[in-house]
UniProtKB/TrEMBL annotation:
InterPro entries: UCP021328 (IPR016787)
One Pfam family here: DUF2992
UniProt biased composition (Basic residues): 129-139
Superkingdom of origin organism: Bacteria
Protein name as it appears in the record: DUF2992 family protein
Record lineage: Bacteria, Bacillati, Bacillota, Clostridia, Eubacteriales
Segments for region (Disordered): 101-139
Length: 139
């Protein structure tokens, strides 16, 4: 079982954001964090130590063929990290996962507001009915 965790910090107008990506067997997890102003390395390390386990990850099952990752030479890994640091942006898988999560949150928000609106209308209707009854009764 090989787990790879990657944090990408980038500037997304008007805030700095961090995208955590975890690749684990057949699962791919993503979480997005907004830092606000440009974070220092020490702030990022503190955030990871204190808040990593409270992050909410979006889970996706990888549909691609499962490929085996071999243990790589440390120098090769360092070169890959330097290359990744030069490239800017989030991986497409991460973008897709975040977008899907955004859409599901949007749908849930709409459902919740619709239910609240309907319950408010029912409550107002009941109040009006009670007022009518009171007027009919007389005092």
């Amino acid at each position: 079982m090989l787990i790879s965790v990657k944090l990408t910090v980038l500037f997304n107008e008007p805030f700095w954001i961090g995208v955590f990506e975890i690749e684990e067997d057949e699962y791919y997890k993503v979480s997005k964090v907004t830092f606000g102003s440009e974070p220092k390395e020490s702030e990022i390390f503190d955030f990871i130590l204190k808040n990593y386990y409270s992050l909410k990850f979006i889970l996706q099952k990888v549909e691609e063929e499962k490929y085996l990752k071999k243990r790589q030479n440390p120098k090769r890994v360092q070169r890959a990290i330097k290359k990744a640091l030069k490239s800017k942006g989030i991986g497409t898988k991460a973008q897709i996962a975040i977008k899907e999560q955004h859409e599901t949150n949007k749908i849930q928000r709409k459902k919740k507001s619709k239910e609240e609106n309907e319950s408010e209308q029912v409550r107002n209707f009941q109040i009006k009915q009670n007022k009518k009854k009171e007027k009919r009764k007389g005092h």
